[in-house]
Structure formats: C-alpha cells, structure tokens
Amino acid sequence: MFELSKDHEDFRQVVREFAQEQVAPHIAEWDRDHHFPSHLVPQMGELGLFGLVVPQEYGGAGLDEGGFTYLCLAIEELGRVDQSVGITLSAGVGLGINPILTYGSDEQKQQFLPDLVAGKTLAGFGLTEPDAGSDAGATRTRATLADGHWTINGAKAFITNSGTDRTSVVTVTARTGERENGRPEISAIMVPAGTPGFTVEPAYDKLGWNSSDTHGLTFSGCAVPQENLLGERGQGYRQFLKTLDDGRVAISALAVGLAQACLEASTEYAKTRTAFGRPIGVNQGVSFKVADLAVMVDAARLLTYKAAWLKDELEVGRRSVAEVKQAAAIAKVYSTEAAVTATRLATQIFGGNGFMEEYPVARFYRDAKILEIGEGTSEVQRMLIARGLGL
Amino acid sequence: MNIVVCVKYVPDAQGDRTFKDDNTTDREGVDGLLSELDEYAVEAALKLKESGEGEVTVVTVGPEAAADAVKKSLQMGADKGVHVCDDAIHGSDAAATSLLLAEAIKKSGEYDLVLAGLASTDGTMSVVPAMLAERLGLPQVTQVSTLEVEGGTVKGRRDSDVASDTIEASLPALVSVTDQINEPRYPSFKGIMAAKKKPVETWSLADLGVDAERVGLAGSWTKVTSFAKRPPREKGEIVTDEGDGGTKLAEYLAAQKFV
C-alpha cells in the first residue's frame, strides 16, 4: 500500500540519473547566468517526460491510466536537482500540453502536440495579469471577433515557457463578451509565437528559478484566426480552474523534490562537517533539524502521491472532482510550506556556507519561496480547503 | 544483422568496496548496476540496429541481481536477454567467464557481431573480449572508438598515444569499444515499459553443458590470494616561500619528473 511499483522506481531511477548527469554539473552556472537550458527540452522529450499523459497518436506514452503519477515522479526528481528544470517540465505539460490535449480540436492537437511531446517546442498558458491572478474573473485582456479573426488587446504576467527559443504557442484567456448576469465571458485563445502584435517582454529579474523562462506578454491589436479559440467560447475560466488543480499537485511534487534535496544535503553535511573536533550532527541542535526534515519529506511525499493517485483515478472515473481538488490543495499547501521550511533548516545547518552560492542549498533557499505562491498561494489553498469542508 | 552484446553487473563504484572471506567482491549492501563502460557497447549495437535490420541480444554472467544489467540494456532498446546464473559460477575469473559467455553466445543462435565494453568498472582487466574471441574463433578488433559495418566487414579505429590504427575484420567478429565511441542513451519511458515484455532466458551450467569444475573459484586459473586497502593519502609537502619559493617549487616538480 505504501510502495510504488517496480516500474515507478525504474522510471524514477532514469530521471534521477538524467538530472544528476545532465543538470547537476551545470546548474550553478546556468542559475548564475539566468540561462534557460533549452537544449535539455528535447532530451527530456526523448526520455518521454512530456508525453506521460498523452496518447500514442501524438507521440505520448499512451497509458490507459496512471500517467499523472509518473509525471509527478519526474517533476520530483528533476526538482531534487533543480527547481527551474522541474518547473519547465511541470509547466510544459500542465500548462502547455494539457489544455490543448483536453480542449483542442483535432486540427489543433495534430498541429501542436507531436512537437510539444517530442520536446522540439514548448507552449505556455497566459492567465495571470498584472491585476488578475487566482481571481481570473478580473481578467482585463479582451478579444473581439470580427471578419473571422480574434483581435487581442491586453497584458499577461509571469508566463512560464512563453519566451524560449522553442516556444510555439501561448494560450491566453481573454474577455470575449459579457454574460447575461453581467459577469465577463472568458475564453481561451491560442496565439502562435511571432504573431504580429504579440510581444514577449524581457525576462523578469526573479528571486529564484533563474533558469526557468518567465515573461510578461503584451497584446496590441494582435489578430489570430477564429479557429484559434481553444475549447468552447465562454469556457475559458472553467477550463483554467481544472488546469490549476493538476498544477497544484505538480508544484507539490516539485516541493517534495526540493525538501528531499535539503534532507540529503543536510544529512551529508551533518556527518562530514566538524566543529569542536566532532561532526556537527552529533549535536541535537543539528540532528533534530535533520530529523524534522525527514518527517517533512515523508509527509509531503505521501500527500503528494495520494493527490496524484486520486487525479489518475479521477481520469478513469473512479473518483470525484471534489476529492481531487481537496487533496490537491492539501498537498500543495503542506508540501510547499514544508519545502520553504526545509530550505531554511538546511541553510542553517550549513551555517556560513549555506549563505554561499558555492553550495546548492543557497539556490534552494532562493528557489523555495515561489512554491508558496505559484498555482494559487497558500492562502488560496486554505480558502479552498475550508470551502471543501463546508465553511 | 544479429548483434550480441556482453554486459556485466558491477557494484556501484560510488559505494564502499569490500571483499568477502574468499577474496571475492562483497556485493551485499552495495547497489549494483550495468557497468557504465558496457553502456557504450549497448549503444553501439543499438545504433547499428537502427541504421539497418537486425536484433540485439545482451548476455551477462552473474548472480541473480545481475538480471538488472540485462534489464537496463533492454530498457535502452536491446531486443532480448540471456542471463547465465548458477551458484557454481561464484568466483569465476576472466578465463572462466569467457568460457561461459562463449557457450551462452553459441547457444543463443546465429550472430554476426559480438560487442563488448572497454573493461568492467570493477575488475578493469579488459581481457575477457580477447579471450572470448579466441574461444569463439572470431577475429578480434579491440578497444575501438569508431565502428562501421559495411557488407561483410567491420571497421574501427583504435586510438593510442602515438598513433591511430584503423582495423578491419570480416564478420562474424568480436569488437570491444571505448567510452569515446558514442553517448549512451537514457532509457525512455516507453523503453522501460517495453522492456517488461522482452524475452530473457536464464541458463544454468547444465543448460550450457558446462562442467562445474571448469568454472567458479575452484575451476578458475587465477586466484586472488590477498587484497589490501589503498593506503591513505599522505600529507602534502609545504614549501615556505622565503624569497626562493619559485625555485623550490620548480625543483620539487623536477624531482617528481613533472617538468
């Protein structure tokens, strides 16, 4: 009951090797230079990481069930070495591939999915705006339909994978009208990279996740064909909420990887670093911190795997949406807060060295904070959990 | 073209190396894996297969856990596996291992090319490929960093400090490859799933018709009589600069024949 299958472990092992060999030796430099390692994307495609939840006809794994759990394992293992690479996969699948796979027409799927799954291209999803985050109803970006074209005006903020050299398309939510009750009608529209009027703003100067690609986007009279509507008109908001549920579990997996990395680094350091002639780990002030890390990692992992499993069960109709929503919010709030605490404990155990970029824990510390914010803040998660309890 | 790749399951080089009472490697408590140097041979085989027709069979000799080396090769893309496993094999030296590999390869069917890595990452003797070629009566092209097959011949380049040889042999042949030949692939998710359905034969000594007296500790021609831990690194020499630091440093390097 509390063990993954041999297949899961075999897969984890491969992703771990990949991360150790292809990411770990270079990540400090990429992080320092704010470099997006674009060359890793097709390599991850070859490993099959972008296709775990995708049918075979688009080059995916074609699993009958269980794909999402595999994806979370991959995100966790990449995240154990570097969060930026982990979020590139997480967003690439959850925000890039998933909406097209779930809501796209046959033509849209044929056009975009094979290259996305192969890691030749990346796609982004633009929901957040300077003045609209989880409050997606406050979306200001507008799209008007005339002469067979949507003309988009507005701006999006913090859009992952939107400005890489291999970004093929960004799906954006926009107001396409007004409902009878006066609330905005929101739809999702696909905007191919390079469309006139679609500007990718310079990369953000971030606290962490330096090797992930994040941009603001501006749309100024940006016209795309009417067929670029993704899914049904007016369904953009609902579509996005579903996307967010999956994303929360994925972020949770990323947090598990980070906490695991803190545990491993701290355990090793506590055994090898000596002070007053003895390894620092013989002092309870240090060893109890490491013990706390172990507890957090275990708890976060179990919550995350449970949520991932529920999501896989939902896909085959054995669980309800409400159950998954609740489990996703619980996993996300716990794991991400645990990860932030874990990086604080790890840097503390490393002492002065923990403040030095020479050691990975310094990067971990900077990378952790966003976990409590992205895909719904901790406060939003608690709001959802309380709502799920009928409050 | 049918290709056989010889692979070895070795203790993880990152782990602590210990020996048992009979001077054989202690595998308890150490993670094992497909010898990294053999991954290059598997990759070379897969590349040849992908550029034409054929089948890749991996063969290993080792304890039960050695099945993992076969599995990893199948996950990378090999088609079938052979695992020679028998309690009596324990302690076999290179010559005895080459006998077992030769018998297993003969039993596994028709082949055009036998591939091996540069050396195992545990024993690092590099002699099994040559011994195996002798037992199979094959021309041997060892330690090459390129490999081409055209018609009935195989061609490879062996790089040394002073020159590079290009060696050609007629098929069937045995070739061992270095770690310069390619970049081994990672198993893909599909590869991991597909490997589960690929056939693996497990053969005992009886299956191979090999007499137990010819292998194992007792049947081996060589014997490890003792072992010693590498001595701890000695303290470095500190040169104090009293205006002549450069000279002292140069003298030291010259004395060590570095310059």
From TrEMBL, chain A:
Q: Which UniProt keywords apply?
A: FAD, Flavoprotein, Oxidoreductase
Record-level Gene Ontology MF annotations? acyl-CoA dehydrogenase activity; flavin adenine dinucleotide binding
Domain Acyl-CoA oxidase/dehydrogenase middle per the UniProt entry, residue ranges: 125-221
Acyl-CoA dehydrogenase/oxidase C-terminal domain residues are 234-389
Q: Does the keyword Metal-binding apply?
A: no
Q: Where is the Acyl-CoA dehydrogenase/oxidase N-terminal domain?
A: 5-120
Cofactor field: FAD
> Which Pfam family, any one of them, does this sequence belong to?
Acyl-CoA_dh_N
Q: Does the keyword Transmembrane helix apply?
A: no
Recorded family membership: Belongs to the acyl-CoA dehydrogenase family.
What protein am I looking at? Acyl-CoA dehydrogenase
Species of provenance: Leekyejoonella antrihumi
* Taxonomic placement: Bacteria, Bacillati, Actinomycetota, Actinomycetes, Micrococcales
TrEMBL record, chain B:
The Swiss-Prot or TrEMBL record annotates one GO molecular function as: electron transfer activity
The cross-references to InterPro entries, in alphabetical order and at most eight, read:
ETF_a/b_N (IPR014730), ETF_b (IPR012255), ETF_beta_N (IPR033948), Rossmann-like_a/b/a_fold (IPR014729)
List the Pfam families: ETF
Which part of the chain is the Electron transfer flavoprotein alpha/beta-subunit N-terminal domain? 22-212
Cofactor(s), names only, from the UniProt record: FAD
Q: Which GO terms describe its cellular component?
A: cytosol
Top-level taxon of origin = Bacteria
Membrane-spanning segments: none
Which keywords annotate this record? Electron transport, Transport
Write out the function statement from the record.
The electron transfer flavoprotein serves as a specific electron acceptor for other dehydrogenases. It transfers the electrons to the main respiratory chain via ETF-ubiquinone oxidoreductase (ETF dehydrogenase).
Q: Assembly and partners?
A: Heterodimer of an alpha and a beta subunit.
The family line of this record is: Belongs to the ETF beta-subunit/FixA family.
What name does the UniProt record give this protein? Electron transfer flavoprotein subunit beta
| Organism name | Leekyejoonella antrihumi
